[in-house]
Amino acid sequence: MLILPILAAVSASFGWATGIVLAQRPAKALGAFEFTRIQLIACSAIVAVICSALGYWPSVKWSYWPSFAASICVGIVLGNLAMIECLRQGGPMRTELLLSLKAPLVAVMAYLWLQEVPSGTDIFGAGVTLLGVCLAVFFGGNEGSDSDVTTGRMAIILLLGVTATGFQGFGFLIMKPAMLAGTEPLAASAIRLLGAALLISVIALWPAKTFRGHSELSPSLLGWVILPGFIGYGVSSSLLLYAFANFDAGIAAALGSLSPVLVLPILWQKEGLVPRFQAVCGAILAVIGTAIIVIF
């Protein structure tokens, strides 16, 4: 039944949108580094258990270890740190919108690195996405929303968002040879998460104030850190993998990129404030641009 993979992809988008809204409060409380460290350790354990249960480890092509290492350092550790700091300073709506730039940024990197020449349609889609992001980020803010309040300069928020998107896109792109060689996607995710958890735990041993949490970690706060990570890494990733396996990959990717739009009704439900018209239009344009790139 085609309805199941379609629902899976849309549910994955909803999960990521929900996760980033839930992550804002604990990320502000702990700081980007401590939040990322705890979430990576917990989520890597969860995904590793799932991989073990499904027997995916033998599929890993270890000869591509340089790709795994680069993906871990750049895509997971640096990408997640930049994303969480963007979330802390800019809020979930702006973060999701900036992350929607991943498709055009990956297309640029694929052109520079793999000599994959983008088509006119790809360039048009990238332009539509960029237009939507600019419209929503610069004109779609809602001053009455607690989640939409910025705590940093817009230039810094934009830099963090674009950096996070570029790093995460690089982390996925550099894994392409290993995936084409037969490595199961979930096993690749588990290795990336486990490696990132180890690396960030070693870095945390350095006695620097930057690496310390801003607040004392209570059991309740720990739960709020792990929950959005489990939703994103465990539930949403698995749903999107199911959609990729049972439906057209391009359409599945487009349906899995709806979070910039879906985050708006979630924030509306959370705070009772109607999103601004510019934010809605910008989010829709960002999703349409991504769909143009991945489908056509």
UniProtKB/TrEMBL annotation:
Pfam families: EamA. It comes from the Bacteria. The keyword Aminoacyl-tRNA synthetase does not apply. The keyword Protease does not apply. Keywords: Membrane, Transmembrane, Transmembrane helix. InterPro entries: EamA_dom, EmrE-like. GO terms for cellular component: membrane. This is EamA family transporter.
